[in-house]
Amino acid sequence: MKIGEILHCIQIPVNQVIINAFAELKKCDGFFAFVESDEKSEGLLLEAGYTKALGKRIVLAIKKGVNLRFLRAIADKVIAFESLDELKGKIKETL
User: Fold this and answer.
1) Does residue 84 lie within any of the structural domains?
2) How many CB atoms lie within 10 A of CB 3?
3) Which structural domain range is residue 42 located in?
4) ∠ CA(43), CA(39), CA(30), 5° rounding?
5) Is residue 37 part of a domain?
6) How many domains does the chain have?
7) Which terminus of the chain has fewer CB atoms gathered within 10 Å of its CB, N or C?
8) Consecutive sets of 10 residues in the chain, 95 residues long: mean pLDDT of each?
């Protein structure tokens, strides 16, 4: 892309985004959530809840000190980390 070019964005209605996300989650073996702040994401919570309802595995990678009780409660595996290097090592151990 060159300076001065205009990007054209496609606006997709929220309900269509949700429908698309749910369709993709049905195809997956599980759900990997990466969280590094206390900010709640409605989309992440919705996707995680739907994944749980489908009976699929949820792995939560969450930065130490972040307290999102709902996600921790429904996760099948919680990987707490301080740095991305630490997370990388813990993921390798898990596999």
Assistant:
1) yes
2) 4
3) 14-94
4) 40
5) yes
6) 1
7) C
8) 64 87 95 93 93 96 93 95 95 82
pLDDT at 20: 92
Check residue 4 and give its pLDDT: 59
Q: Has residue 5 been placed in a domain? A: no
Structure tokens at 11: 């606006």
Distance in angstroms (rounded) separating the CA atoms of residues 44 and 35 = 9
Which pLDDT value is given to residue 10? 76
- The two structure tokens encoding residue 56: 């699929």
In a domain, 6, yes or no: no
Q: Which residues pair with 57 in a beta bridge?
A: 30
To the question of pTM greater than 0.85 for the whole model, the response is no
Name the one residue in this structure whose structure tokens are 């409660």.
Answer: 73
| Helices within the chain (DSSP H only) | 14-27, 42-53, 69-74, 84-94
Element (H, E) at 62: strand 57-63
Q: What is the pLDDT of residue 14?
A: 84
